[in-house]
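Ticket #256: bound-state structure for 2-phosphoglycolic acid.
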Amino acid sequence: MKKIIIANWKMNPATPQQALRLAREVAHGTKDVKNIDVVLAQPFIFLPLLRYTPYAVRHPFQLGAQDCFWEKVGAYTGEISAPQLKALGVKYIIIGHSERRALGETNEMARKKILAALALNIKPVLCIGEKEKKTDEVFPYIIRNELHEGLKNIKKSLLKNLIIAYEPVWAISGNRSSHADTPQNVYEMSILIKRELYRMLGKNIASRILILYGGSVDDKNATDFIKDGAVDGLLVGGASLNAKKFVRIVKEAAKL
Ligand code: PGA
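RESOLUTION: The complex was predicted; output attached.
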């Protein structure tokens, strides 16, 4: 399966000019990379700009969003629907990121957003992960619960388009005392997630679901997670705002 590297720009950069520059540098730097899908999950407001500005490079990135609303249309002030994103060429939507969960997003809300994306053939990237690093049984339980609740009653055949991002909250940069997970732990968690998906969905579907790691990924540790962590790609926050670092991550991953 093709690996995938998703840049999560979060609420950055500050201006359209900066967004365009960053996107251009990434497009230019990754134009010869063939075996990786590069996705820029950016603030909604930059999507039209990046969609309609020509890049003059052969290998552009795919457009991604960081959230969506589950209703298709109507009186929902401030929300953005999946069809609106689809119309702008969005192929991936990050759903249930821990920073959104911290603002009140529940598993049920994530579930409805996943459904909205899948119905339009957009790939949802469901983020799951424990808040604290503990060695007991608690965090496997949290992961299982997020999977079961987030995917409840969704037709199995639709879920082949799902992507799971394992992002332990304590590893996400920006949190005080955050630090990257170890490839060994990521390996164990990706096996746990895979096993759970096999149990829930059967081999046919589960084997098609990509599993990513996210949390303080940079150009120094990125390949270790793919090599030793048994993941299919990465969700990169902070380091994706630095075009040089992000391009290096993509290029190094492409060599594996
Ligand atoms: P980080 O963020 O790479 O800055 O830790 C990852 C994420 O929150 O998706």
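RESOLUTION NOTES: The chain has a mean pLDDT of 94.
TICKET STATUS: resolved
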